[in-house]
Amino acid sequence: MSKGPLWLRVVHRLERAVGEPVESAVRSDTYFDLVSIVTRTTGKAKSTAESVSRRGLHLLNLPAGSDVKRLREQLLRMERRLAQLNENVEELDDAGRRTGVG
After folding, report:
1. Confidence class of residue 96 from pLDDT cuts 50, 70 and 90?
2. Per-residue confidence band for 2, with pLDDT thresholds at 50, 70 and 90
3. What residues contact 3, with CB distance under 8 A and at least 6 apart?
4. Do both 18 and 30 map to the same domain?
5. CA angle, 50 as apex, 47 and 51 as ends, to 5°?
6. Burial code of 30-67, b = ≥16 C-beta within 10 A, e = fewer?
7. Residues 7, 17: one domain?
8. How many C-beta atoms lie closer than 10 Å to residue 4's C-beta?
9. What is the DSSP letter of 28?
10. Model pTM greater than 0.85?
11. Secondary structure (3-state) at 18
């Protein structure tokens, strides 16, 4: 145990003194039950807060995050459609040049 500097030996002892109880607690069923409860509660709290803020913003006739998300999705669909139409037009132009039409 006398290998290494004193500070390193102190750190290793401290790590063992603190680490072992923490590791055993983290591996327990109680810990996993607690994590599950906290995760569910956090999700419900976020959902409730989002619902309240959405209603408040709509009362003020302002867009909520869900409205912005929906508009972004619509915009992405339109951009994809425009890109597809642009490709179709380019293909038609190329075909017209090859056949001498246009």
Report:
1. confident
2. low
3. none
4. yes
5. 85
6. eeeeeeeeeeeeeeeeeeeeeeeebeeeeeeeeebeee
7. yes
8. 10
9. S
10. no
11. helix
Let me know whether 47 and 79 are in one domain. no
**Residue 57 C-beta-side C-alpha neighbours within 13 Å:** 13
Write down the residue that tokens 């599950």 correspond to.
36
Contact at 8 Å (CB) between 51 and 65? no
**56 is in which domain, residue-wise?**
1-62
Structure tokens at 20: 């072992």
> Residue 19 is encoded by which pair of tokens?
């680490």
Amino acid symbol at 77? R
- Identify whether residues 13 and 43 lie together within a single domain: yes
What are the distances in angstroms from CA 62 to CA 46, 50, 67, 72?
A: 20, 14, 9, 16
* Number of domains the chain is built from: 2
